[in-house]
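Sample pair:
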Amino acid sequence: MNLSKSILIIILVSFTLISCSPQPPETVINVFVYQFTNAKDISWKLEYNGLWKASFHIIKFEYMSAFYDKEGMWVSNEREVFIDDIPAALLIALQKKYPRDSVVKSFERTTPAGIDYGFEIEVDGSIIVIGYDENKAFFVMEDETFQINNEFTVEND
């Protein structure tokens, strides 16, 4: 097989794979574009809970995600933040609750109700995702913990 035929086959397979990936409803895309007009490197994924997740950046290497329901209603935004960006009282409470465990990642979630924070923590060699409720009680986010330990995602930059 000659080189040009091989390249053509690779291109056709690539287009087929791209066209098979799920695409959100037009209403979801329209709301996203209205909210984030300068978004770049947008990728869509249908999450385990039925929400559409758009991963993107506005400033290079500062990726964030936006979540929408199937009708296009905005649910939340999420972005990774440095540990220094977390309120001090929350960090102190987290360190008291998990004194021997390491924070691997911290993230800020913005919802219609306000801003909260979550953490990926290494506990005995496994990653768990921790959130906290309105009473400042920490809890394991079971679905997110399962997802992070059972899913492998490759993102480009």
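The longest helix spans residues 3-20.
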